[in-house]
Structure formats: C-alpha cells, structure tokens
Amino acid sequence: MNKICLLLLGVVLFFCTACFESGKLEDLDKKIVSLKQDLSMANEAVAEYEKNRPQSLTVLMDTVRKNEGYYQVLERLGVERNDRGAIVLALQDSVELSNLRVGQKFHVAKDANGATQVFRFSPNPSVVHLLFKNPTTKQFEYKLVEKPLTVKQSIFSGHIVQGGTLHGTLISVGIPARMSGVVAGVLQCKIPFSSVQPGDRFRIMLEESFYKDSIWISGKVLYAEFDGRVVGHHEAFLYNDPDPKSTYNAHYTENGEALIFDGLRYPLDRLHITSPFGTRTHPVSGVRKMHYGIDYGSPKGSPVYAVAKGKVVVSGYDQYSGNKIAIRHVDNSVSYYMHLSSRGVGVGAQVTGGQVIGRVGSTGRSTGPHLHLGFKNAKGQWINPKSKTMIATPKLQGERMARLTQQIAGIRKNLEKLESTEPQTIEGSTVKVKQQVVSK
Ligand SMILES: [Zn+2]
Known about the structure:
Elements lengths: L1 H21 L2 H28 L5 E6 L6 H7 L4 H11 L13 E6 L5 E9 L2 E7 L6 E7 L3 E10 L6 H7 L4 H12 L12 E11 L3 E14 L3 E7 L12 E2 L11 E2 L7 E3 L2 E4 L6 E4 L2 E4 L5 E3 L4 E9 L3 E8 L4 E7 L1 E2 L6 E2 L4 E4 L10 E7 L13 E2 L6 H22 L4 E2 L6 E8 L1
Helix pairs in contact: 1-2, 3-4, 5-6
The structure holds zinc ion.
Zinc ion binds next to loops.
C-alpha cells in the first residue's frame, strides 16, 4: 500500500511543478481532485485484496501407527472433532476406510485460525485422495488424483520339482504372496495337491501395475493353468465385471464355473466395506466399541441376498437394528441383515442362498443407507463374516457368461502374443518368464 501512495505522491508533485510553471492553477485543482479520487480507489482496491487474498496455510503430516484408524491420526494432527467426522463421511464412498496400513501418510492444511481446509491421503504413490473445504458451503469436497502407471503382463511357466509345491515355486520366483495365494486357491478347487507329481507343468499369467516403472502398486492373476500326470489339465480365467467392486469379479473355468470350494453367497452385488468387524473408534465421538458385523455401504433399495439356504427365524423391527432379518442355516449358524428399507420374507419362510430377502435401507440407528451383516456360528458366537468364503454365484449366466467368453478369447490372444516374446530365465530356478509392457 505504501508503494502505491508514494507513487501517487510522486505523480502529484510532478504535476504540481508542471502546473506552477505554466501558471494554470484551475487545472491543477482539477488534477488534484482527480488524483485524490484515484488514490482513494487504489486504497480501496488494496483493502479489498487484503480481505480476499488466499490465506496462507500451514501443512502438517502424520503417519498411521499400529492399531490406529483415521480417528487417531486426525486427532494427533489436531483436526477439530466436527472436521474429523466430516472427513470420514466425505471419504467413505471413495475410500475403503478399513484398509489403512501402518506408515500411510495423512496431510492436513490449516488456516491461520487452525481450521482444517485441505485433507490429503495417499494410500500408494499413484493415488491421492483430496478433500477441500468449500469456503461458501463449509463442506469438504472430494477430488481424486491418479498418476499414470505402467502395466505389464507376464507369463511364468515351469514345472514342479521333486519335493516342491506350486505355491512355494511361485513365491521363490518373486511373485507376491497375495497372487501366489490366489493361484493356489483357485487351482485347489480342481486339483488335490497331494496328487501333484514332480514334472507337472504350470503356467500363470499376471497383470501388474507399477509406478515409475518399478514401484509395485497392484497385480491380478489373469490366468492359471495346471497340467498334471495324475490330476489332469485345468484352466482358470479372471472375470472382470464393468463394476470393479462387483462380487462377480473372480476366477472361473472356461464354462463359467466358480473356482471356489463351497462358499456363502455375497449378501450384495457390490462390496464396499464402510466399517469392518471388530473394535472400532467412532470417528466423531472417539468412543471405542465392538462392532459385531460388517457394514457395507450401498444405495437404498439394492437387493439383499440370503447368504445360504435356511429358515427365517427373525423378521421384524427394532429401534437399533431397524428392519432386520435373521436366517438359521443347516449347520445351525445364523446370518443377520439389518437396517433394511423393506423385508421380503416372514418368520418361518424357507429361503435359498442368493434369494432376495429385502432391500438396503437406513432404518434404526444408522447414518446412511448400508447393510449390517452379522454372523453367529453354531455355538451362538459372533464371528467375522469375512472369515467365511463368499462367492457371487456358483456359475456365471447370461450376459455375464457371454462377457466371460469374450474375455477368455482376449486372454488367449494375449497369451499367444506373450509366448512369442523372448523368455528370461530366473537364476536358481527352472521357471521361465515372458514379459511385456501393455500400457504406459
Ligand atoms: Zn454395523
């Protein structure tokens, strides 16, 4: 502001000198009036700018520690109680809040009054979840930033050596345990591993994404093949539904048969866990409480399926669970479905696994539409429903089956393409790798 004043004063002085020299005093008066106006306008502009200039924010960072949830980290960062709740609410549709890992970083940016204006969470180097507080509505607005990844496909092929296992062989060549586990899991359905012989051949096709070419972000098993002297020839294909959270995303045989031993039917078509089983800290109140089930966020009205066949033992309403249904299964375990908007079955009804028994709602003590799924074992103890294997269907049908057939053709084409590339050998292993970048 001082600079502007000095400048204007300089201009005034210049004109004064000029005017005295020419002796036109009336003109000078006019000039002074106009310059005074300019000066007052400049002052107003400066004041306006000072009032509205972007606030300088202070950025703080903290990391997730063992046994911590969002609440603890946000509290340590000094985020105000209401904002803690608002942040969790604003994120829960986009981020699976129960998947926090030790070491993950939270950033918050606060204004001069200590109020949180920006929240940043980056679960891995390629993804950033951002929340900005809208200055008008005072609500957090969500923005996702995804950085480009390099996607590679690879085939690992080899044979079982004397005393070796498939899982052990895959781990030894550096395939992440999560994916080796998937391979073993799907093949196990068809292959009794005790009948696996040395010399039996396998072929696995993976698709992995990397950040900056080398930081592993994620991977999936597109294909697994096993050809055994005793167990015979088996193939497994990954089915990809248009919805990445669809419960149908799993491995199937070429005929669409699910590769899973025996599983419960998922209670919904889409899984998004908003609150897991176990002790949780309420994001707003900070109170620690046991949660005897899993909450799945889902739009109101979505169909809810019986997880297995059984008899309806509860179909009613109470102020906490809202509309709830309980089904006793043949092994005497009981599944519970709560907060429903509507119930489609009454006490005593016999239901089959996958039958629609009601619709997702937000009745009872609930902050938004979700399904609370509880599960009691035969002894009447609450168990984590996640400990049960769940599948969407034993066999794909209709449109999904047609899509699988199409995807299998694509996988076979890619296999052929990959097979034509030069193999790399892995030191100390009989396994060969063929790899290519499919997108960057
Ligand atoms: Zn719940």
